[in-house]
Amino acid sequence: MKIVITGATGYLGRELVRHLDGKGYEIYASTSAPEKAEAFFRMHDVHILSNESLLNSREVIDENCIIIHGAFCRKSEGIGLSQSLNFSRKLFQSAVDNKAVGVLNLSSQSVYGSEKAVLGSEDSELSPGYLYAMAKCSSEELLRQAVYFSNGTMAGCSLRLASLMGPTDTVPQNVLYKFVRSALSGENLSIVGGTQKFSFLDVRDAAQAITLLLQKTPDSWKPVYNLGPVGQTGITEMAALVRDEAEKVTGKKVDILVEPDEKHALNAGMDSGLLYQDLGWKPPHSFADIVKDTVQFVCKKG
């Protein structure tokens, strides 16, 4: 079985290559920066090609191929998102034309919005609140249309991912990373709001879940799955975990300063029970594990 990974040099893409290498797949790493991929994957058995080459090749995408589509603009900007949707459309059409076995489209929990009191499940109404979230909704619709027009020859699943974190070569510039950098520098952790709830999934768990999905027959995939942690983490709990873990490493004591502000309400997360049930699996890394491993990794990287 061929596995084509678009966005292969991204945060999750690189972790997927590491997870899938040596498991009997023929791996194709598609990227907008092939020269970077050569350096990243020099120790892995993987074919590297550009996104343009992937679209123009009839030898890669065929009836023995599953595509994991992770290439997408991360910024909420119109031009980049429009280009990403155009690439997604062409990729899904190529998958249909060449009778690919299936497509796993990596979507986002942002499609649910972040102000609902109840966490979204796969059949919940979507409420994207900004351009990136809206574009992810659109990518899901593009895949649904492609599956429909394949007349049953191709399976498709949009995997709505929680925010990813964990110790890999690239640490995302999110609130957890900022807390870690501040605490390791001996700076107090400042919080505006205090009631925000986050949903972070270890990137290693995301790659493991996708690997398990690949081991299932694609026509058994649901059209949509949520993939997130078992529970949410409050921002003050997050800060406390970072403070304590950083103190173990540096010996520096820092304070947590909270400035209450109702404008900073946030309830990010979703119900991932359906995927847990279908895989017979739950994410093995707790949020405390993520913090500990991330602190150690950032220290090692300097």
List keywords for this structure.
302 residues, two-stranded parallel ribbon, alpha/beta, single chain, seven-stranded parallel sheet, globular
How would you characterize this protein structure?
This protein has about 300 residues and is an alpha/beta fold. About 40% of the residues lie in helices and about 20% in strands. It contains ten helices and 13 strands. A seven-stranded parallel β-sheet has the order 3-2-1-4-5-6-11, sandwiched between helices. α2 links the parallel β2 and β3. α6 packs parallel to α8. The protein is globular and about 60 Å long.
Order of helices and strands: EHEHEHEHEHEEHEEEHEEHEHH
Count of helical regions: 10
Please tell me the overall pLDDT.
Answer: 93
Globally, the shape reads globular
Gist of the model:
The chain is built from ten helices and 13 strands. With about 300 residues, the protein is of the alpha/beta class. Helix 6 (about 175-185) packs parallel to helix 8 and helix 6 (about 175-185) packs across helix 10 (about 285-300).
Itemize the secondary structure elements and their pairings.
Layout lengths: L1 E5 L4 H10 L5 E6 L2 H7 L6 E4 H6 L8 E5 L8 H20 L4 E7 L22 H19 L5 E7 L1 E3 L9 H10 L4 E4 L4 E2 L1 E3 H12 L9 E4 L5 E2 H16 L5 E4 L13 H7 L7 H15 L1
Parallel strand pairs: 1-2, 1-4, 2-3, 4-5, 5-6, 6-11, 7-10, 8-13
Antiparallel strand pairs: 9-12
